[in-house]
Design a protein that fits this description.
alpha+beta
């Protein structure tokens, strides 16, 4: 029961923050930020907000600083739109999902290339050693 309420609250916070960021903040450091996930604690008093920033490492850092400095204003916005007794504190955490996805894609491409190399080598391979003297060869009965 509590898990369902946590999920609903997290989803609502994600929507509220995304809409507010879409309108824009008055901070020039803020880049193109996407809220990827929100996780609310079991007591509903803390929300971890995961975000990604499109751009360079410098833009990611400055956008993180802008979000951190706007935490109070964003929490007020969340509190205004939620109908809860207590407004959860917000913690902004950069989401490493895009970097991890790029890394996984590169690893999969590398594995595919190695598989192709192994298949190429295996296609021209022969068995090592002499033929097995104890293995009976199929007999040709001449009825073919």
């Amino acid at each position: 029961m509590a898990g369902e309420r946590q999920a609903r609250l997290a989803d609502r916070i994600r929507v509220i923050l995304a809409e507010r960021l879409e309108k824009g903040l008055r901070d020039p450091r803020l880049g193109f930020v996407t809220i990827t996930d929100v996780r609310v604690s079991g007591d509903l008093q803390h929300a971890s907000v995961f975000y990604t920033v499109l751009g360079t490492e410098e833009e990611r850092i400055s956008s993180g600083a802008a979000l951190t400095s706007a935490t109070g204003m964003l929490r007020s916005e969340v509190g205004r739109q939620l109908s809860t007794r207590l407004v959860p504190t917000l913690e902004f955490i950069p989401d490493a999902l895009p970097e991890n996805a790029d890394n996984i894609t590169a690893l999969l491409r590398q594995a595919q290339e190695r598989d192709a190399e192994v298949a190429k080598i295996a296609s021209s391979a022969t068995h090592a050693g002499d033929a097995d003297p104890y293995r009976a060869e199929p007999q040709d009965d001449g009825q073919s």
